[in-house]
Design brief:
The structure is a homodimer of 363-residue chains. Chain A has 363 residues and is of the alpha/beta class. Chain A has 2 domains: 1-108 and 264-363, Isopropylmalate Dehydrogenase, CATH 3.40.718; 129-258, 3-Layer(aba) Sandwich (Isopropylmalate Dehydrogenase). Helices cover 41% and strands 23% of the residues of chain A. Chain A is built from 12 helices and 14 strands. The first copy, chain A, has helices at 15-31, 45-51, 57-66, 88-98, 122-125, 166-181, 197-213, 224-233, 245-258, 302-316, 319-334, 352-362, and strands spanning 2-11, 35-40, 68-73, 103-109, 129-135, 143-150, 156-165, 186-191, 218-223, 240-243, 268-273, 279-283, 337-338, 348-349. In chain A, the strands form 3 sheets. Chain A has a 10-stranded mixed beta sheet with strand order 2-1-3-12-11-4-5-10-8-9, with helices on both faces. Chain A has a two-stranded antiparallel ribbon with strand order 6-7. Chain A has a two-stranded parallel ribbon with strand order 13-14. In chain A, helix 1 (15-31) packs across helix 10. Chain A is globular. At the A-B interface, strand 6, strand 7, helix 7, helix 8 and helix 9 of A face strand 6, strand 7, helix 7, helix 8 and helix 9 of B. Strand 7 of chain A pairs antiparallel with strand 7 of chain B. The structure holds 3-isopropylmalic acid (2 copies). One 3-isopropylmalic acid (IPM) sits between chains A (89, 92-93, 249) and B (194-195, 225). Chains A, B: Substrate binds at residues 96, 106, 134, 225. Chains A, B: Residues 5-359 form the Isopropylmalate dehydrogenase-like domain. Chains A, B: It catalyses: (2R,3S)-3-isopropylmalate + NAD(+) = 4-methyl-2-oxopentanoate + CO2 + NADH. Chains A, B: The record marks 141, 192 as: Important for catalysis. Chains A, B: Homodimer.
């Protein structure tokens, strides 16, 4: 039976290569009677090459209509000198904003087979499982006014504006508390309330929501600079970290790198639930387009497959299938299969499709 | 002979305790004929307790007149609920802004005796020596408009503004290129030019300055999220990192933590040189007021003493004396003296003044 529709946006660089392996898993699900209708379109540099913009209005409309997007990656040196509004990233940011995907879930987990690959001492990261929840449609990414103006004396002046309202903060914090309840019941709310007014409002709003609706969840406030430190010092103290768009960008990358599993980490960006409990959503590997290895068939498809597992779980309530896919990935790692980015002595080196083969066999 | 005047602002928490050890080194210098006239005043919570503000106009005027400040630390739980404008941090931020200390130098170095104390694997940090240069008087810390407004429906809206002009970027980048020339000749300029307009202007301005005045210095541009990753992954790739006020806040704390020597790291905040080549400057240990250990006499005075060494070097051109102090500190560590924060098996545990004793003896 057809369970739903998905829009594939492979994008640039290794995006298309890793998405191919997701297609194969979709084929496997179909053979088991779980069918998806997949459409595909262009985003990023790939869209710019054909249409002159990093995302067309038609693609944007299609994403909103289908509601569930599998995203590869965007960007590459070829596009570095494009003006701001045409950069590949703008395609991604427009999708986030116009689908209103305000809650970005970035799990930083250490795969047991890879604990040794972290730059941190193994005892600090073994078993690490932190969920970074990043606000994704507000803050300095979209606030107005923004731009560069010429001053009289030949100087230029650039401005960006960080804006948050109570409700923007509340809705993402609510997701954080709900996540924590299913995990270890602890939330760190991260801002710079000692310097920024958005930080003051952030702290007040999160605290008030906790006191009103989530008195059972432990809440701690932490400054963003201290959080960057604590992630390096003792990452296991965290369960769920909820933070704004810009701090979330830095802190989630820092946390991802700690795991030593950067090529392995997924993300989900979720919108609000509608009357039927359905949310618009986009799923995306945390690694980027990796121009240096694109086209060689050696990229690690696991981050993308893990993102697809999140899609199964969050968009289609297929938790059992998601578990099964994640378990297959974990088994294949235990068996010693490794793509180049996670190569280890004594392990079997495989290509992108070789990793896909191993995972499908395990499934 | 008197070589100059210094304003001591010990502040809160362990600030006063560690500054006492600097007084002793000043006494030692005096006995060798290098005399400083030291004045002392209140800042932060200590100033609030007496005057109701975290920095009085009189203290501000004195800092500007004397021009060289040794700063301890500010803040503590007692002051957490003060309104924004009265928080201890405002005293610090006012000093930075009104003395126009735009260039904040934060060396992240690993003391050989402490390489094992890092959370990173020793081979990644041994010999690490990165200089983080943070813009300190612009960006989102001071941009207008800023504040929180009430909306009609009981909601609130908070705004912060990040602003940079060409000249603000140029003057700090120039300090970065000059530093790099005396080090390993490499600058990483860090922003989010893919998202922020201030980042675009930052990148253009730094590149133009490099091409015009520093063609001999290697320049690389890096996004802030990637920089947070790379600091964890391979910190030794960096020589000088130049970045804005907010990114510098997070990245310098992250880098400091990498070294495992957080209680040991100094900082210098410098203004522009006047006609006589003199700069206003403030020197400050990177660690904060550490309320949890304040008043126990166990704080590590080394960060503050290292900051004083920077004062000798940058404000009074006493490079030989600075070298000598740094060498004494390094020797004392090699001899196994440790305060509680860096305690190691088989080492001699000492108090704040015990560490001061050992360093003075070595001098
Ligand atoms: C590509 C870029 C615009 C994006 C961001 O800054 O959000 C990326 O770094 C991310 O974290 O998804
Ligand atoms: C105390 C605080 C205002 C300050 C800052 O954010 O600049 C501190 O974190 C620092 O890095 O010096």
């Amino acid at each position: 039976a057809q369970v739903g529709r998905i829009l594939f946006l492979p994008g640039d660089g290794i995006g298309a290569e890793v998405m191919t392996e997701v297609r194969r898993v979709i084929g496997w699900l179909a053979r088991r009677g779980i069918e998806f209708a997949v459409e595909e379109d262009l985003v990023g540099g790939a869209a710019y090459d054909v249409h002159g913009v990093p995302l067309t209005d038609a693609t944007m409309a299609k994403a909103n209509e289908i509601g569930t997007v599998m995203f590869g990656a965007v960007g590459g040196p070829k596009y570095d000198d494009l003006p701001f509004a045409l950069k590949p990233e703008r395609g991604l940011l427009r999708l986030r904003k116009e689908m209103d995907l305000f809650a970005n879930l970035r799990p930083a987990i250490v795969f047991p087979a890879l604990a040794g690959a972290s730059s941190l001492k193994p005892e600090l990261v073994e078993g690490l499982d932190v969920m970074i929840l990043r606000e994704l449609t507000g803050g300095v990414y979209f606030g107005e006014p923004r731009g560069i103006t010429e001053l009289a004396d030949g100087q230029k002046r650039a401005v960006d504006t960080q804006v948050y309202t109570t409700s923007e903060i509340e809705r993402v914090a609510r997701v954080g508390f709900e996540l924590a309840r299913k995990r270890r019941n602890k939330v760190h709310s991260v801002e710079k309330a000692n310097v920024m007014h958005t930080g003051v409002l952030w702290r007040q709003t999160v605290q008030a929501l906790r006191d009103r609706d989530y008195p059972d969840v432990e809440l701690e406030h932490m400054y963003a600079d201290n959080c960057a430190m604590q992630l390096v010092r003792r990452p296991k103290q965290f369960d769920v970290i909820v933070t704004d768009n810009l701090f979330g960008d830095l802190l989630s990358d820092c946390a991802a790198m700690l795991t030593g599993s950067l090529g392995m980490l997924p993300s989900a960006s979720l919108g609000a639930a509608d009357a039927n409990g359905r949310r618009k959503a986009m799923y995306e590997p945390v690694h980027g387009s990796a121009p240096d290895i694109a086209g060689q068939g050696i990229a690690n498809p696991i981050a993308c497959l893990m993102s697809f597992a999140m899609l199964l779980r969050y968009s289609f309530d297929l938790g059992a299938e998601a578990d099964r896919l994640e378990k297959a990935i974990s088994n294949v790692l235990d068996q010693g299969y490794r793509t180049a980015d996670i190569a280890q002595d004594g392990c079997t080196r495989v290509s992108t499709s070789g990793m896909g083969d191993a995972i499908l066999k395990e499934l």
